[in-house]
Amino acid sequence: LAKTTQPISMDSYEGQEVNITCSHNNIATNDYITWYQQFPSQGPRFIIQGYKTKVTNEVASLFIPADRKSSTLSLPRVSLSDTAVYYCLVEGEGSSNTGKLIFGQGTTLQVKP
Amino acid sequence: DTGVSQDPRHKITKRGQNVTFRCDPISEHNRLYWYRQTLGQGPEFLTYFQNEAQLEKSRLLSDRFSAERPKGSFSTLEIQRTEQGDSAMYLCASSFRTGSETQYFGPGTRLLVL
């Protein structure tokens, strides 16, 4: 059972900023929040990972409030090529943790011209 | 290309046949994972290797499924007596255990059982 909840789908237009929020109410102290992107007929691709506050890379930003019960992936100025499924996952390290990823259904982002 | 590779990319087989898929992880990665993904769903964990040791298997992995990772390098996933319900994308991922690790996925093998 996925540890996260996110919208099934979102629509946007080229050039807009897209924010996808994910809920993870039962996140554990040692869990990180990770986002993956998947295009049709390809494997998922790592986008960004964070533990708290804000993380930014060349692709996206990740905002995590102090309680860490949710997170928001922000994609600046999306283009048609950003049309994909975006997965939010929580994963942690521990003596019993294998690192396996538990995916939910993800958010299908459709970017329109 | 130094990413994760999988072979074949597509496989069509008849029900009851055996199939074998291969995954070549990123060379320095000691962890290797197999996932299965059906249409409209996220990938589901099947099994996991740390070097050559298979450390966890999902309940999804019935007795007809077997995975190996000899010498801790490439891995194979075999499905015996395939069923139509086995039709799916089979994804392989690898990672190097540090703290919070990133998994790198291959392109997948799409299996269609007729």
Write the layout of secondary structure elements.
The complex is a heterodimer of chains A (113) and B (114).
Chain A: E1 9-13, E2 18-23, E3 31-38, E4 45-50, E5 53-56, E6 61-64, E7 70-75, E8 84-92, E9 107-112
Parallel strand pairs in A: 1-9
Antiparallel strand pairs in A: 2-7, 3-4, 3-8, 5-6, 6-7, 8-9
Chain B: E1 5-7, E2 10-13, E3 19-24, E4 31-37, E5 44-50, E6 53-57, E7 65-68, E8 75-79, E9 88-95, E10 104-105, E11 109-113
Parallel strand pairs in B: 2-11
Antiparallel strand pairs in B: 1-3, 3-8, 4-5, 4-9, 5-6, 7-8, 9-10, 9-11
Count all strands of chain A and give the number.
9
In percent, how much strand structure appears in the residues of chain B?
A: over 45%
Cα distance spanning the termini of chain B: 33 Å
Beta-strand content of chain A: over 45%
Describe the structure.
The complex is a heterodimer of chains A (113) and B (114). By secondary structure, chain A is an all-beta fold. Chain A contains no helices and nine strands. In chain A, strands 1-9-8-3-4 form a five-stranded mixed beta sheet, with no helix packed on it. In chain A, strands 2-7-6-5 form a four-stranded antiparallel beta sheet, with no helix packed on it. Chain A starts with 8 loop residues before the first strand and ends with a strand. The mean pLDDT of chain A is 90. With 114 residues, chain B is mostly beta strands. In chain B, strands 2, 4, 5, 6, 9, 10 and 11 form a seven-stranded mixed beta sheet that branches. A four-stranded antiparallel beta sheet of chain B has the order 1-3-8-7, with no helix packed on it. In chain B, strand 4 and strand 5 form a beta hairpin. The mean pLDDT of chain B is 92.
